[in-house]
């Protein structure tokens, strides 16, 4: 492929569907896994390590014929808090959505406390978001804080 | 509180705390009320405990109820690898109320979600021990005549001690002021100091014991445990620094009482025991009345 082809591929438009932009490049695969994009039949294209003035290296995902509910999309807030969604119908952007950090999350992040019940028995981790700006989570079970630096994804 | 589990002290409103304390007062005046006749309370202790388990069992017995349970997990199906969920689901069939101590943090909250009968958390690792906090509050109110505007001095292991953390959270509702006395390695965690800052309560932090107890209404002692130190030399340096001796109490306020969740090792010298300001053994007795009140309320009998 020469440069011209690559350029064309990265701006390839979709007919109907969703474009998720401004994903931190290092978290692209976490976004794919959190949204379950590795398990659906839609046509998906993604680009990563693209230049971004705002965030250095960013990634972008285009998913044909797929539209997200607000709750569903807020699940990626932990890994892509600045992500922006463009909703495409008939090649036109008909709506834009921003990710909002939810009040609580369940089943996405691991509790960082090794002595927590969620790390010792089959219990789905649940958290209250106690700091939305720096994303810090208080475990519903052991009541310990998991901060962004120590976040591991299920 | 009726039919609800008691997992964390933060689950209780100020009114609910007062209801427990008032009812405990009634049980202290008249401890032999046979209101638990026909009820079975299960005590599941996955970790050793003397005071907590025996005071619960004493409370149930005095109220005419029956106790089933175990005091160590090794003699049960747990040692065969049974999950906490399965044990709780099973025992909930045999009892009206489950009292549980477990080393894993959050285990009590989880048990309360899978159990059809209420759970009382009797300690989940380093996390919560709400009945201890309630009996501490009962002891403070009883000896000081009030909970508001008191000066609380906390001494010893303030980093890992769950009882001091829960007591701090509870007393912060009553405009307390605090002094934290501990070795550098075992200071009160930042999150609690930030919490006090955020609600505008005053605290001092120091590593000196003798000079900082004169204006205390309550001195709350805790054990400095050897296993908390990564450097054994550090433990040797501080182990005798945080020992309360009778001579240190000379200039303290006459209403001041010394509390300790027990077991004590050497952090309160035995020469304090005969001082009327020593309150740790009556404190342990108050645990029976407080636990009677908690069980009576949860079972809807009071």
H/E element string of chain A? Answer: HEHEEHEEEEEEEE
Number of domains of chain A: 2
Oligomer: heterodimer
Label the CATH architecture of the largest domain in chain B.
3-Layer(aba) Sandwich
| Spatial strand order of the main sheet of chain A | 2-3-1-4-5
Task: Note down, in words, how this protein is organized.
The complex is a heterodimer of chains A (154) and B (302). Chain A is mainly beta and 154 residues long. Chain A has two domains: 3-98, 2-Layer Sandwich (Alpha-Beta Plaits), CATH 3.30.70.140; 104-153, SH3 type barrels (Roll). Helix content of chain A is 13%, strand content 38%. Chain A is built from three helices and eleven strands; from the N terminus they run αβαββαββββββββ. Chain A has helices at 3-10, 28-34, 70-74, and strands spanning 17-24, 44-52, 56-64, 84-89, 92-98, 104-106, 109-110, 126-131, 136-139, 145-146, 152-153. In chain A, the strands form three sheets. Chain A has a five-stranded antiparallel beta sheet, with no helix packed on it. A four-stranded antiparallel beta sheet of chain A has the order 6-8-9-10, with no helix packed on it. In chain A, strands 7-11 form a two-stranded antiparallel sheet. The radius of gyration of chain A is 17 Å and the shape is elongated. Chain B is an alpha/beta fold. Chain B folds into two domains: 31-128, Rossmann fold (3-Layer(aba) Sandwich), CATH 3.40.50.1370; 131-284, Rossmann fold. In chain B, 35% of the residues lie in helices and 15% in strands. Chain B is built from nine helices and nine strands. Chain B has helices at 14-29, 51-62, 84-94, 107-114, 130-144, 162-171, 190-198, 232-238, 280-298; strands at 40-45, 66-70, 97-102, 119-124, 151-155, 177-181, 203-206, 218-221, 257-259. Chain B has a five-stranded parallel beta sheet, covered by helices on one side. In chain B, α3 (84-94) crosses α4. The longest helix of chain B is centred in the C-terminal third of the chain and has 19 residues, at 280-298. Chain B is globular. In chain B, 44% of the residues are buried. The model of chain B has no long low-confidence stretch (mean pLDDT 94). Chain A binds chain B through residues 111, 113, 115-118, 120-123, 139-145, and chain B through 8, 83-85, 103-107, 109-110, 124-128, 191.
